[in-house]
Design goal:
The complex is a heterodimer.
Chain A lengths: L1 H27 L4 H11 L17 H33 L2
Chain B lengths: L2 H20 L2 H4 L1 H21 L1 H9 L7 H26 L4 H4 L8 H24 L1 H12 L22
The chains are: A mainly alpha, B mainly alpha.
């Protein structure tokens, strides 16, 4: 019962935010831009090369790229936080 | 290591791998990309349920001094949640498998595609920060898992204990 309540809370938040987003996006993109982009979609849909290659194993470049990006952010964060922690310790020690 | 922590770790790891897979639609193809993204949404709900007590606790004392250290993480998680909703919503709006599967038709607009790509990029950056903030927990969990469990030696109360500092 408790879990269902929690799931309902999450769903309500998701639906509210989703509706808000939907309203904002449709309100802002109701100009003439949408028409030309719809045309672009009807021609090709996804970007060139998204699905056209058949056969063979494709290297998951996007996946590796994203993994690299996340790793770099983690490394940078850990380095920066370590630096600040050491600075804090030096200040506290009064050196 | 408690069973709940173990479950949490495996769920998070699975969610992370799924996110990476979802981020490569050219490799997986559109159909797998869309259905996997929906499954990812479900995994995120379970992730939130696992961490429910933390969310409630920090929300209730967000602007107190005691929540100072968790505040950044809290807002980052909200931003991640926000961009996740944006990605799923924009993904549904440009869907070619999931939405038609349910017999629905949505008006097409190019701005949804742009938003989908933008929010995906934001998610990756925020996910990097999310992992970084919990890096110590992740490392500790793996350390606990890799170290074999040592059971404490049972010492009989009748057995004389030799003190190291006292010479016999």
């Amino acid at each position: 019962m408790k879990t269902i309540f929690k799931v309902l809370v999450i769903l309500v938040v998701v639906l509210t935010l989703g509706a808000l987003f939907y309203g904002v996006v449709t309100a802002t993109s109701s100009g003439g831009v949408a028409g030309s982009l719809v045309h672009e979609r009807s021609v090709g849909g996804f970007r060139p090369g998204s699905e056209g290659l058949s056969g063979g194993i494709q290297l998951p470049v996007e996946m590796i790229k994203n993994l690299l990006l996340i790793s770099m952010i983690v490394a940078a964060y850990l380095k920066i936080s370590k630096y600040f922690r050491s600075q804090k310790a030096i200040t506290r020690a009064g050196i | 290591m408690s069973k709940q922590n173990k479950n949490r770790l495996w769920l998070d790891l699975g969610t992370f791998i799924t996110l990476l897979l979802v981020s490569a639609p050219r490799t997986t193809g559109d159909t797998i990309h869309e259905w996997l993204a929906l499954a990812l949404g479900g995994a995120i709900v379970v992730h939130l349920l696992f961490n429910w007590s933390w969310i409630v606790e920090i929300t209730s004392r967000l602007f107190t001094k005691s929540a100072k250290n968790s505040r950044a993480s809290y807002f980052l998680n909200w931003a991640l949640f926000f961009s996740g909703i944006m990605t799923i919503l924009s993904g549904l709006m440009i869907s070619r498998s999931v939405v038609p599967f349910f017999g629905l038709w949505l008006p097409q607009s190019g701005s949804w595609r742009q938003l989908h790509e933008l929010s995906t990029n934001i998610i990756m950056i925020l996910m990097g920060l999310h992992v970084a903030l919990h890096w110590n927990w992740i490392v500790n969990m793996f350390k606990h898992m890799s170290v074999p469990r040592v059971f404490p030696r049972v010492v009989s109360p009748t057995m004389p204990i030799q003190r190291k500092d006292v010479q016999a």
